[in-house]
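User: Sequence in, structure out. Go.
Assistant: Echoing your sequence, followed by the structure tokens.
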Amino acid sequence: MTVEHISPAAALALIEQGASLIDIRDADEYAREHIPAARLLPLAALEQGATLQAGADDVVIFHCQSGNRTRNHLSKLIAAAAPAQVKVVEGGIEAWRKAGLATVEDKSQPLPLMRQVQIAAGVLILLGVVLGYSVSSAFFLLSAFVGAGLTLAGVTGFCGMARLLAIMPWNRR
């Protein structure tokens, strides 16, 4: 089965004709901003075997943040939507927003967890370097520790910092 990559405007036209729009981002990303017609079905749920109840005459449109997740997981998306026609919004919600189309935004929601990890890791590494040069070279170990944690997260898929940030008061729902 081939998948058609479509513009946000083409996706909107299909949605107005009854196509289903599926957001495969994580729940925290969806809560912060999403396309009004989009239904959340995170990639993690698809990887665990979740499927859509779609018929051969249905059109299912998938989107993510920038288009990378949808491109990288096309076979899972096709399997989840089978036997429907599958289409992907080229450029994801970022392209949707750039096209001037409406999104539902809730700035009171915390930043997506992975952005929080990136900010925390960056601050800790920078702090380790600054303190390493200005106070004691022992502070370079802080940067090394964070770097080792990021490497472990990349290799194993387990991110201790993400787990820690997830239980912080601002991330509790």
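User: And one key feature?
Assistant: The first strand starts at residue 4 and ends at 6.
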